[in-house]
UniProtKB/TrEMBL annotation:
Keywords: Membrane, Phosphate transport, Transmembrane, Transmembrane helix, Transport
Similarity section: Belongs to the inorganic phosphate transporter (PiT) (TC 2.A.20) family.
Protein name according to UniProt: Phosphate transporter
Molecular function terms from GO: phosphate transmembrane transporter activity
Short name of one Pfam family: PHO4
Organism: Marixanthomonas ophiurae
Localization per record: Membrane
Length: 747
């Protein structure tokens, strides 16, 4: 029996490494976003600074490990056998849950995950014990669960959402009133003071308050306590002088240094606060195993009072954990996708919106707009005008459609994000509260973006929907963590070693599946057949770049149309569903190009304005092509999915003949645009009447069949719809060819 617990310890060690990987992939967003979004320093420098912060924070984080040992439940009420079931259920659930969110590219809270997993598994194990005890009832659950501490942790986490958003918004609003968006000149005059305040806050809360979370605090306690004001005053003088000299000697903004040190401090605070979420449970299990072996008692009778004692973490294990976290930071692609979500939601300018608006986001935006209008009526006009002038954004010459070259927000906002988040997280760490770093950093970023008026009329409904989706995901995290960990604990209790083996195998399979799914999704994003925004500002350049997009649309349309007809002939819903997804993706890409028209026109030179008319018309015809394909795909899928009668042999044969004719047409058009053989378009246009007559002939044949042969009404309606929409598809293609040919001749 001893061997099974040794194997469980080994499994927990492996799970700890895996949890570090998936956990850091999700939480890297917390300390990287401000530096990445502002582009104040190079990406490589950001990674080096963050790596140092993570490693140092990990090595000095052992004081937080007590949360996993006794923060949620009373270990003295459980036996070794039971505590190992709890720990195993928690770790398997944690890995699967975090990896699920990483695959979606959504930031979630590793702290909330571990807290609710411990709570769920401990509650279920407590109920099992209560059920086996004739003298205990549900009312005795309180003696097993540390309700006071658990409530304190949960309320602290929820309260942090409101506090982080409010503090971030207020501090950013005040900072913007002082510095405005044209902050370069004011930073030269007041940068030393700003640097002194910001770096003092970071230095004090990260390095001094954060020191309370380590086992080494006792060595400094007498020096630190009672002398806080002297330390703050000395730090302010030092950092103000440092800021002044930095700007004078290097001729650079002190904001760069604030962002660099803030990133280091936030990474350090993250590591010190969140390492418990990844390795706290396995380390507690290891200490339990050591105590049980030394006792010589049975696993089912050995009480876990030992976990109530303070046991420092092994420095060697913390060193290894820090190394794994640093490697994950450098090599995890999922960390980048999670970071993109928060940067996109806090971005100052326009761009692609990841989230779609919903009813709640529309209600919130309309409600806040009315409140803002009401305040404008109440406040004196002079005051409103003065405040608005502080939020006037600079005009950037770089075209908006090249937003990937622009920072998502400026260095003032990045500095405030780091300072406010670092201070809040470090205060929680000093109080040994496992505060959610994700909640704090995300809500601070959202608060500062709101204060910066980044959520304008054009983007507010999308951004609010994104924030609501993320927050909804947090509640889903808490609920699913509690239920899943409790369920796994019960299954392990019933199945013991067999259940553990099955669950571990299932976890590995799900991780592999998520990895393959994410890889496939990443490859799809990098697909060379994707449409590209036109960046040329001359007519000739627009015509040439449009040729690439036309070739890609024709290539994809050819495949989609053929696949739809094959799926319809074989009654294959999976192939039809795949075609529907392909059409939707194509439609979305064309819509994105149309959304970019405003910036495209603004970027044109005076001599090339007529190129905008050509570009708009071409996009219109491409959209007509996509809409025809969309109609055909939806009608075909609906027919097969509703289990209506299959098309008759003659109908399928006619559709295959049409498909062959269209394949030849698509192939010719694609070749013309790929090879820039534009003169050959005239040959394609000559086939227009022939194709129309060919489709019309099939329509007449079906009319004759309908009158003489037995057929289904649904079947006939679908067939006519396909033929008529195919005719519209040919019309859109020919209009596209004609417009391109005429414009090419004029250019």
């Amino acid at each position: 029996m001893e061997n099974i617990y040794l194997l469980m310890i080994v499994a927990l060690a492996v799970l700890a490494v895996a949890d570090l990987v998936v956990g850091v992939s999700n939480d890297a967003v917390n300390f990287l976003n401000s530096a990445i979004g502002s582009k104040a320093i190079s990406f490589k420098s950001i990674m080096i600074i963050a790596s140092l912060g993570i490693f140092i924070g990990a090595v000095f984080s052992s004081g937080m490990m007590e949360v996993a040992r006794k923060g949620i439940f009373d270990p003295g009420q459980f036996y070794f056998e039971e505590i190992m079931i709890v720990f195993m259920a928690v770790m398997i659930t944690d890995i699967l849950l975090l990896d699920f969110f990483n695959t979606l590219g959504l930031p979630t809270s590793t702290t909330v995950s571990i807290v609710f997993e411990l709570l769920g598994a401990a509650v279920v194990m407590s109920l099992i014990k209560i059920g086996a005890n004739e003298t205990e009832t549900w009312a005795d659950l309180g003696k097993y669960i540390n309700t006071a501490k658990a409530t304190e942790i949960i309320l602290g986490i929820l309260l942090s959402v409101v506090i982080a958003f409010t503090v971030g918004a207020v501090v950013q609003w005040l900072s913007r009133l002082v510095f405005t968006f044209h902050y370069e000149k004011r930073i030269k005059n007041f940068g030393a003071l700003f640097g002194g305040v910001a770096l003092t806050a970071i230095g004090y809360f990260i390095f001094m308050k954060g020191l309370k979370g380590t086992p080494y605090y006792g060595d400094f306690k007498e020096v630190v306590e009672g002398n806080e004001l002297y330390f703050i005053g000395g730090s302010f003088i030092f950092w103000t002088l440092f800021s002044f000299l930095f700007m004078k000697l290097f001729k650079k903004s002190i904001l760069i240094m604030v962002i660099a040190i803030g990133t280091f401090g936030l990474a350090l605070a993250f590591s010190g606060n969140d390492l418990v979420n990844f390795i706290g449970v396995p380390m507690a299990a290891f200490h339990s195993y050591e105590a049980w072996l030394a006792s010589g008692e049975s696993a089912s009778t050995f009480s876990m009072d030992v976990l109530s004692e303070k046991v420092p973490a092994e420095p060697f294990l913390l060193f290894i954990a820090g190394g794994v976290m640093v490697l994950t930071l450098w090599f995890s692609k999922k960390a980048r996708s999670v970071a993109e979500t928060e940067i996109g939601l806090s971005r100052q300018g326009e761009g692609h919106e990841k989230f779609q608006p919903n009813m709640l986001s529309r209600v919130v935006v309309k409600g806040t707009s009315r409140v803002a209008q009401g305040l404008n009526y109440v406040l004196p006009k002079a005051t409103t005008k003065n405040i608005n002038s502080r939020f006037e954004k600079p005009v950037v010459e770089l075209p908006k459609h090249r937003t990937y070259e622009l920072p998502a927000f400026d260095m003032i906002r990045a500095s405030i994000n780091l300072v406010v988040a670092g201070v809040l997280i470090s205060i929680a760490t000093s109080m040994k509260l496992p505060l959610s770093t994700t909640y704090v950093t995300f809500m601070v970023a959202m608060g500062t973006s709101l204060a910066d008026r980044a959520w304008g009329r054009e983007s507010a409904v999308y951004r609010v929907a994104g924030v609501l989706n993320v927050i909804g995901g947090w509640f889903f995290t808490a609920f699913s963590a509690f239920v899943a960990a409790g369920t796994l604990a019960y299954l392990i209790f019933l199945g013991k070693g067999v259940a553990i083996a099955i669950l571990l195998m299932l976890a590995v399979l799900l991780l592999v599946r998520n990895y393959l799914s994410y890889k496939k999704k990443s490859n799809a994003i990098m697909d060379e057949t994707g449409l590209k925004k036109t960046e040329s500002n001359t007519v000739q350049g627009i015509i040439q770049e449009s040729a690439d997009n036309i070739a890609k649309v024709i290539h994809r349309s050819n495949k989609i149309y053929s696949d739809m007809l094959r799926g319809l002939a074989k009654q294959d819903t999976s192939k039809l569903k795949k075609s529907k997804k392909g059409v939707k993706k194509l439609n979305d890409e064309i819509d994105e190009l149309r959304d970019n028209i405003f910036y495209f026109i603004k970027d044109l030179d005076e001599k090339s304005v007529r190129g905008s008319n050509f570009y708009i018309i071409i996009l219109g015809y491409l959209q007509d092509v996509a809409q025809s394909l969309e109609f055909i795909s939806k009608a075909s899928y609906k027919h097969v999915n509703n289990n209506h009668k299959a098309l008759r042999f003659n109908q399928i044969k006619d559709l295959q003949e049409i498909d062959q004719s269209l394949q030849d047409l698509f192939t010719d058009i694609e070749s013309i645009f790929q090879n820039r053989e534009i003169e050959k378009i005239e040959n394609v246009l000559d086939k227009k009447q022939e194709l129309f007559e060919f489709v019309s002939e099939k329509i007449e044949k079906q009319i004759a069949r309908t009158r003489t042969e037995e057929s289904s009404p649904k079947n006939t309606a679908l067939y006519f719809s396909l033929l008529l929409e195919t005719k519209d598809l040919i019309t859109a293609l020919m209009n596209l060819m004609e417009e391109y040919y005429i414009s090419y001749k004029k250019a």
